[in-house]
Amino acid sequence: MRSLTLHLKLLIAIxxxxxxxxxxxxxxxxxxxxxxxxxxxxWNIDAKVEFVANAKDPIKxxxxxxxxxxxxxxxxxxxxxxxxxxxxxxxxxxRKVTWSAxxxxxNQTLYYRLVLTKRYTGEKSKVKxxxxxxxxxxEGPEKIAAEALLAPIRQHSADVETFIGEAIKRVNNLNDxxxxxxxxxxxxxxNKAKIVELVLSIAHVPVxxxxxxxxxxxxxxxxxxxxxxxxxxxxxxxxPETGEQGLPTDxxxxxTGDENLITVDGGKKANVTFSLNNSEMNAIRLAKxxxxxxxxNFLDYSLYGLPLETQQTFMIMVMxxxxxxxxxxxxxxxxxxxxGTFTPVLIALAFRETQLGFGIVLFTIITALGLSLRSYxxxxxxxxxxxxxxxxxxxxxxxxxxxxxxxxxxxxRGLSVALFPMVILTMTIERxxxxxxxRGGGHAMKVAIGTLFAASLGHLIMSVPELVYFVFxxxxxxxxxxxxxxxxxxxxGYRLTELVRFKAFLKEADA
Length: 511
Fold this sequence. Notes:
The protein has helices at about 1-30, 140-155, 160-170, 175-185, 190-200, 285-290, 310-315, 320-335, 340-355, 355-380, 385-410, 420-440, 440-460, 465-475, 475-490, 495-500, 505-510, and strands at about 40-55, 60-65, 70-80, 85-90, 95-100, 105-120, 210-215, 225-230, 235-240, 250-255, 260-265, 265-280.
């Protein structure tokens, strides 16, 4: 007996831990939203390219576009132009779009449009980068000034991260004579980043420029310069003005390197303006869209990977254990008497078609009339199978009659009674009549009311949209329910109704 108890406890623990682990993995690693109302941001970015074309020269415009290789995924990308050829190429980790035309004249306008969102899955591609670089060639006073800056940087840093941060802070100290010499009167962010790169190269620390766009709606945007360095496993981002580490979450990397955003051959006065707006989309739907654009097809291994019609069926099926659990609690812990465990659950499923109020009325009418017929047939001394056949036929005729009268009276809800499980009603009538004969009418009524109450409560709980979504999205929680059901299988204590029932004995014992 002790070994059996230990076996049961281990089984319960395994099921509960497995259910919690799988659900936690889906929520915290895969990032699946816990509620159906959860939405994710959808960003629409327009880059407007304007320039003046030379009338006699071929036109070639090149512009960097986001690589979208790690944190973001593209849902739609379009290049809007008139009579221009379009090609997209990868160059040194960047993506470049090239618009070309044989002839163009006057003011020209091109558009690049991108719809993107955060990459949904927790899996991200591995990144690579250099961890060593050669020194930039520099001579004379500039070399002396750079080495003079490097000495205190080494003294006040402990690793690559603090080394780069300290270098940026030193270069931004415009009162330092060495910094003044290196900047040569140009304190722009681009020039500061260039000096930081020079100083770090002497220490063989690689750093590169990255240009980002801030994801903020309805605000004018210009590319923002950042610096980054590879630490062997990941990229470290630094603000070139403050030395602050970490790229904000609202930054989209557009391109890397020293080149300009746009170059124009055969034209002049090139200008790029950005406009952004965002919207929201249901997180699960967005996950499906991003899943189609990524390599990690995690939704294919969930119930969302099934055809839509099959999904609707499983949304009902996965709630059956919830209904069973409700009946189990009502029977074993509270002590409500019902016609078994599954009959109330099946009646609760039938209420999905009729709705609760109308379903209770129909259940009561059909069961009452069926019991009357069953009582009459009992006097004819029929065997069980013919008796059930007659009751089933009577239930069908009664359902048809109710549907017909409901339609004539304009009560379209009554038509749904045809979907009421006829076999369930027939067996319910038969079991109630047997209970009536064996234990009396009062007990049969108590069981009927208990069954109807349990079915109604089960229907209400099984119809909660948030619960349906959660169980369908995270079906591993059913393993936790199984563990709880196994634990209840060993419960031998009093039910709540029994505490009320034996209350008089407790008073006599106290007396």
